[in-house]
Structures are given as C-alpha cells and as structure tokens.
Amino acid sequence: METATNFSRINHWTYNHLLELGLPQSTAQYLNMGLLLVLLLVLVYATDKITKTLLVGTLHKFAEKTATHFDDYLIKNKVVKYLAQVIPLVLVVQAVPIVFSDFQGLIKPLKTLTDVYIVLLSVWTIQAFLRTCRDFMKTTALFRDKPVESFVQVISIFLYFMGGLLIFSLLTGKSVWAFITAMGAASAILLLVFKDTILGFVASIQVSTNDMVRIGDWITMEKYGADGDVIEINLTTVKVQNFDMTITTIPTYYLISDSFKNWRGMQNAGGRRIKRSINIKISTIKYLSDNEIEQLSKIGLVSEYLRERQHEINEFNRNKSVDKSLLINGRSLTNIGVFRRYIDAYISQHEFTHKHMTMMVRQLDPTTTGMPIELYVFTNEVQWEKYELIMADIFDHLLAAVRFFDLQVFEHPAADDIRQLYTKPRTDKNSLSAAVEHMKN
Fold it and tell me: Which of 55, 92, 99, 168 is most buried, judged by most C-beta within 10 A?
C-alpha cells in the first residue's frame, strides 16, 4: 500500500508540473505515463537485482554451514530466483493502475497479463521445487532405486494442466469448469493424443508398487536389445545402459506387457548359476577293467570313491555268482560314470562354487552330438567378469581331464580332417570305405 501511495503522489506531482510548463493536457498525460513507466521499470529491475542478490547470497552462506544438500539443490534449480521475483511482481501489480490511471482501457488487459505471469511464476516455482525434491531424494538410500522421476513428471503434467486452465480462464473470462465441460466432448481425442503418457503413468505405478525394476538393476530384454543396468525410470521410458556403453530406451509400459529378466535376485542371493554341458562322444563310453580302475585310482578326487564302489560291486557279483569273464555281466563301473563322479568331487571342493546352493552333475538325453554331461552349479561371485573367469577355469580343467578317463569330447570333423584323409596314401581299392572306417575309429 505504501508503494501505491508513493506512486500516486509522484503521478500527481509530475502531471501538475507538466501542465505548469504549458503542455496540452493530452500531451501531459502521455508524457506523464511514459515517465512513470520508465520509473517503474527501473524500480522493478533494481528491486529484482537486490532481492536475488540478498536471497541467493544468504542461502549460499546458509548452505555452506549445513550438512544437508537440500539447500544446494534449491540454488541449483533456481527456486530462490523464482521466489525473488515475487517482490518486483507485487510492485508492478500495485503500480500499474496508477501509471495508466489516465488510460483506463489499458489497465484491465495489463492486469490480465500480470495475472497470467503470476500463474506462470507459480508453476515455475513449484516445478523448480519438485526438481529439488527429486534430486535430493535420489541421493538418499530410501529413494535411490525408486522411479522418482516418473512421479515428478506426473505431478508436473498435472501442474501445467491446471496452470493452462487458469490462464485460459483469465484470457477468456470464462470459468475453469466451463473449460473442463468443453473438454468432455474432446476426451476421446485427448486420450488418443496422450495414450503413451497415460500408459506410462499406469505402468510407472505398477512398476513401483510391485517393485519390478529399480534404478541400478541389471535387466535383460532381448526383444529390444537391452542388456545392462537401469539408469533412469521416468513417465514414458526406461533407459538401460548396456554393457557396451550404448543406451537402450524402452517404453515403460512394455515392462508390463512384455517379459524381461531382472538379475537382482541373483545379485542379492550372492550366487550366479553355471548351466553348461560337455558333449561326450558316445562311442568312447565303455566298462572299466580292473587294470583301468587301478589306474584311475591314482586320481585323488575319485580314489576313495573307486575303492568303496569297487568293493560294493565285487560283493554283489560274488553273491550273485556272476560270470565276469565278460564285463557286461553283473555290475561294472563305466568310464563316464567315474567321470561324472570326478566332476561332482571337483566342483564340490572348488573355492569359487557356492556350497549352500544347488550343486549337481547330470546326464542328459543322448543326441546326435553326443552324450551331454551338464553342470548345474552356482559361483560365489556374481560380478560378470569374475563369473566368466571362474566358469572358464572350471571347463578348461574338465575338458583337459576327459582324456584321463579314456573319453573324447564330441566335435564335428573340420575341413582339415577331411583333407588329411584324402591326402594319405591309399593302399586298398575301396579308398572311400577305408576313409569312412578311419573316421569312425
């Protein structure tokens, strides 16, 4: 009120002095309005600068003394700068009716524009405060892995929508409810235009409520080429940084409609699964003779097993009066069975296998590529690089150990294998048959 009174006094004083100078009334009115407008602009500019300097400077000093980062984010997101515009805006609201007192037709449009700016300033201030809350919550353990960005975007959309309604009401002179009623007829079009936003909003709520994905989770979505860590979850998209440092953007609602793999459970459990097979050449599978068993008994991991198992088999065959002149009669050890036992003993004593999770060596159905012996075991390291090294070390050892059990790993003949067969001297007439027989052996 004091500002309005002072402006009113200045208005009367300048106007009277212009008339005393002999200027016509109309000229004095225009000149008086121009002088007051320049004065108002200077005051608004000076007030804005002083207010921003004082508020920002005070908050900077306050932020340096506090341990929290919330005040730092207030400065970063320009909340204080928006709040500093309130005082100059109040000055404008009070001064406009006085500056344009001789031109009443301009007061109402200018007042409308001022009200529109008040609405915009309110929206900008609240939006800046929301960004501050978002940035601060991302630094806290409670909200670090939550899709805060999605909720901020939803509130922002609602905020801009309400701001647009108020501005429409101010410019047209119609009530907000009249505009909402008019929008009812166009709701189908709006639903079509904002389909992705609505779907994303619903998906964000479901993702957060069901705890399906968190920021930092490793997810795999082969359909969209995503295999990496989630770095951002917002209203419409989920950003995944793949392990090759590329970024894959997935619509949020696809996390609800399509399937994906989240590796969080594996990381939390502390064990990562190895499920891989060694294909044994079936023609190398055989019964073991006593001499072969004695030779394999020198392998430390199966020596105790062979001693106990062979004693049990001998007792069984003796009680059943089995003729062991042929190994197929009664019970006998096989090289593949001993090899399976060796693998089981090897992974059981391995320092990097998880001893409290499933540990199994099993034989799968024979195929055209051999007899698969599958390892189903978990490592005690979940980091990708260490996991791959552990798995490679295990299979390096097992592939090298196969030959000690008189077994062979199945592999298709390469071009060099075929070439060597046909470059060897042929002493018989049926060379093709000899080559085939040689390949079999």
Answer: 99
Using alpha carbons only, give the angle 62, 64, 65 rounded to the nearest 5 degrees: 70
Own/partner contacts of 69-75, CB < 8 Å, gap of 24 or more, are: 69/136, 69/139, 70/132, 70/136, 73/131, 73/132, 73/135, 73/136, 74/129, 74/132
175-218: pLDDT as tens digits = 777 666 666 656 666 666 667 777 777 777 777 767 788 888 88
- What is the torsion angle, in degrees rounded to the nearest 10, for the CA atoms of residue 189, residue 192, residue 193 and residue 197? 140
Please list the residues that pair with 238 across neighbouring strands: 233, 250
Task: Give 57 or 237, the one with higher predicted confidence.
Answer: 237
Percent of the chain at pLDDT > 70 equals: 80
Q: Which residues contact 260 (CB under 8 A, 6 or more apart)?
A: 219, 220, 221, 226
Closest by alpha carbon to 235, among 180, 120, 158?
A: 158
pLDDT digits (tens, 9 = 90+) for 366-377: 999 999 999 999
Q: What angle do CA 400, 398, 344 make, to 5 degrees?
A: 150
Cα Rg, the chain, nearest whole Å: 41
Strand arrangement, sheet containing 226-233: 247-251, 237-242, 226-233, 218-221, 261-262
Please report how the helices 335-349 and 300-319 are oriented relative to each other, as an axis angle in degrees rounded to 10.
140
Q: How do strand 261-262 and strand 237-242 relate by DSSP bridges?
A: unpaired
pLDDT for the residue 418 = 77
Record: fold of 218-265: SH3 type barrels. (2.30.30)
Side chain identity at residue 198, one-letter code: I
Residue 237 phi/psi, 5-degree rounding, is -140, 160
Domain ranges of the chain: 2-208, 218-265, 273-415
